[in-house]
Amino acid sequence: MVAKGSPIGFIGLGIMGRPMARHILQAGFPLVVHSRSRPPIDALVALGAREAQSPAELAAQCEVVITCLPDDETVRSVWLTGENAALPAMRPGTLAIDMGTTSPRLTRELAEYAQTRQVAFLDAPVTGGQWGAESGTLTIMVGGERDAYERALPILQTMGKTIVYVGESGKGQLMKLANQIAVAVGMLAVSEALLFAEQAGLDLNLTVETLCTGAASSWAMEHLGKRIAQGDLQPGFMVRLLQKDLQILLDEARATATPLLGSALVHQLYRHLERTGEARLGTQALIQVLRRLSGQG
Hints:
- By secondary structure, the protein is α/β, with parallel strands linked by helices.
- The chain has 2 domains: about 10-165, NAD(P)-binding Rossmann-like Domain (Rossmann fold, 3-Layer(aba) Sandwich), CATH 3.40.50.720; about 175-295, N-(1-d-carboxylethyl)-l-norvaline Dehydrogenase, domain 2.
- Helix content is about 55%, strand content about 15%.
- The chain has 13 helices and 9 strands.
- The protein has helices spanning about 15-25, 40-45, 55-60, 70-80, 105-115, 130-135, 145-160, 170-200, 205-210, 220-230, 240-255, 260-275, 285-295; strands spanning about 10, 30-35, 50, 65, 95-100, 120-125, 125, 140-145, 160-165.
- The strands form 2 sheets. It has a 6-stranded parallel β-sheet, sandwiched between helices. A 3-stranded mixed β-sheet has the order 7-8-9.
- Helix 7 (about 145-160) links the parallel strand 8 (about 140-145) and strand 9 (about 160-165).
- The longest helix is centred in the middle third of the chain and has 29 residues, at about 170-200.
- The protein is globular, with a radius of gyration of 20 Å.
């Protein structure tokens, strides 16, 4: 297991990454951070973290390197192909963990390269949204070598409540894609229920409160249905990021001839928000698409 005095590096301090990194620091691990955005770096340095000027500089001084990045292109660049990439700078025996949602194919590519450097590579995507990241109650799905998972567990437990070892490299990402099917199609169910209630003249706050007590209850209804009722479309998880996940999912499904009709439909509905410049809204903004289809504007 990773000892408390071992320096941990964290790259990518966005909506999810910043609170995740903060939990590691507050648990007593020395933390080194790098990100494209200045404010979260300053906030964590004020709490006791140190800043690195590049992924390579961070990787060279850390026992464990963690990334929480938005897309495959960024993940590949930060870990492998970019100037001052992290993996080539990591020492033998260290541990690399990708906690974003990345294509399983890229995950396996990075794991194979890491092996040539005698570095263990884990894919450990998360679910639970901004709320779970802030509260340290994320569910974390881990793929890779079992002994590397055991080493990483004390760090993962600072960020998550449920840590699941799924299997070999890439399996964590596959589990996350299964999760995203339920997230996307579930968001459509919540949006349709609240659109119907709205059109019928029901109070949306009362509708959410009532539906959360019975068989219609879900994480999406409780957290995102409540935001819809309050007129809050700001992101806990952005449309553009879910769309990226759904594209990875549909590519994987196509390779295995798996029919995912609901996921494909939601992907098309969210495309409207991308085309109207609303891709940085929260995923609950799906109700806006349905409102427009119903003629509400």
